[in-house]
Write the structure tokens for this entry.
Amino acid sequence: MNKETLLKQGAIWAFIVVELIFFSVAGSYLSVSDSAFMDFDNMLLLLKQSAPIGIIALGMTIIMINGNIDLSVGATYALSAIILLDSMTWPFMQGLGDWAIPLAWVFALLTGTILGAINGLIVWKTGVDAFIVTLGSMLGYRGLVFMYNGEQPTSHLNWTLVDFAEAQFLGLHTATWFLLGAALILWLVMTKTVHGRNAYAIGNNREAAVNAGIRVGPHFLWNFMLIGFLASLSAVVFYSESGSVNPNDGMLYELWAITAVVLGGTKLTGGYGSIISTLGGVIAIQLLRKGLGHIGADTETVNLVIGLILIAVLFLDRQLNRKGKEELKT
């Protein structure tokens, strides 16, 4: 790992340290809360709360390294959650008792994987830009969400499922283990496998990747299936505990995920990105949301601050890329 890459990947973690210090000091100075911001239980809860967006953001990282994007993950998340909860009320499922739980998980995960495969096939076979394809599927999949149960919430509370979702192991919640486990597996995929190397190659130069014999279309298909699966996994993790999903759930999740990925240093144009840095981006955003709330900021202020930071990061990335290109010309 060269010095420039190390600097890029370390920047997000340095930003997290600055956030922790700032909000701890600001919270103490303003005396807006009785609890310390860096309280251990608060940090464990923060990791748990990072899981739904975090799991999706990990998949978005691979998609964006490819030079693509997926705007349909929020709708996929909601539809998978509905399938998860509603399937457990089906007559044949009710007869299975708690054995219906793993089967409901399978139904939900298959839902996301199939929706992702549809996106991947369209991008592969038509050559239409992924932004346009997934913008259309975002609307279409959200339409399926409303068609499934109208505007009514879908609810089913299974206490065995709730106990599993709320369990802690070594002090970490179930959701946190899913987030960390997904991050580890995807880090291994991106750094130790041919698929990972091909993702970077395609994002850097798609034409050169084709000339090198990489099957770009099937590669895209697998990655869209992966992010669909992860959107479903995120829904399974969250709604196992929640037990109720509204048709509008998951809206703007694609934007939060993209923000976390970009904040972690992944290029929108593709060819560069890091799973570990995305994990840092997810934590940084959750820290911002929690920290600004800790010092008394309202939701509008939180969104404004995160939006401005995202613009600043994109501007800085553009300037660094421009300098890099100028150095190559000299």
Notes: The chain has a mean pLDDT of 87.
